[in-house]
């Protein structure tokens, strides 16, 4: 009996190890896939990279979102970046490009829009490469392609 329990525990341990390896390989693949899209011209000007682990969220969300001249983020189906997070307003925030620079503004959302941990007021704020944007329960990294690409 003890021998059977030992074999079962061994198999369970091996399965857990394989699942762990699978998750790590999947994360690497998704990161490489995002970089490939960026280098192959798949991204317009900039993009938002998801920081959260997708499996921790109870709604579907992509690993990355393109950002061009004007992108509205929200829960509404007509938003450019539509995410079914119940903590997002229908039209939550907007990223837009003006004079070659990107700006983030809150669209009077219920739960606010945060840039690098600070809540936005009623005016737009310039985005820089590497800024952390928080909307609802989602954290994004704002990424600008380097000048050489």
Sum up the structure in keywords:
1 helix, alpha+beta
Would you give an account of this structure?
26% of the residues lie in helices and 30% in strands. It is α+β, with helices and mostly antiparallel strands and 149 residues long. Strands 2-1-11-10-7-8 form a six-stranded antiparallel beta sheet, with no helix packed on it. The chain has a five-stranded mixed beta sheet with strand order 4-3-5-6-9, with no helix packed on it. The mean pLDDT is 86. The chain is elongated, with a radius of gyration of 20 Å. Strand 10 and strand 11 form a beta hairpin.
Offer a quick outline of the entry.
With 149 residues, this protein is of the alpha+beta class. Helices cover 26% and strands 30% of the residues.
Rounded average pLDDT: 86
Order of helices and strands: HEEEEEEEEEEE
| Structural category | alpha+beta
**Rg for CA atoms:** 20 Å
How many E-type strands? 11
* Strand percent estimate: 25-35%
- Sum up the overall morphology in one term: elongated
Strand order of the largest sheet: 2-1-11-10-7-8
Percent of residues in helices: 25-40%
- Helix tally? 1
Low-confidence stretches: none
Describe the biggest sheet? 6 strands, antiparallel
Distance between the termini: 63 Å
SSE layout and pairing:
Layout: H1 2-39, E1 46-50, E2 64-67, E3 70-74, E4 81-82, E5 93-98, E6 101-106, E7 113-115, E8 118-119, E9 125-126, E10 132-135, E11 138-143
Parallel strand pairs: 3-4
Antiparallel strand pairs: 1-2, 1-11, 3-5, 5-6, 6-9, 7-8, 7-10, 10-11
């Amino acid at each position: 009996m003890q021998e059977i329990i030992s074999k079962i525990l061994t198999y369970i341990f091996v399965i857990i190890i394989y699942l762990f390896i699978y998750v790590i390989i999947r994360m690497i693949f998704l990161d490489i896939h995002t970089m490939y899209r960026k280098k192959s011209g798949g991204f317009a000007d900039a993009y938002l990279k998801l920081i959260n682990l997708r499996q921790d969220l109870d709604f579907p969300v992509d690993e990355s979102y393109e950002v061009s001249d004007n992108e509205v983020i929200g829960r509404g189906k007509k938003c450019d970046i539509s995410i079914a997070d119940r903590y997002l307003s229908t039209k939550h925030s907007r990223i837009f490009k003006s004079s070659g620079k990107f700006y983030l503004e809150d669209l009077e959302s219920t739960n606010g829009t945060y840039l690098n941990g600070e809540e936005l007021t009623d005016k737009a704020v310039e985005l820089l490469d590497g800024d952390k944007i928080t909307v609802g329960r989602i954290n994004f990294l704002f990424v600008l392609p380097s000048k050489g690409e």
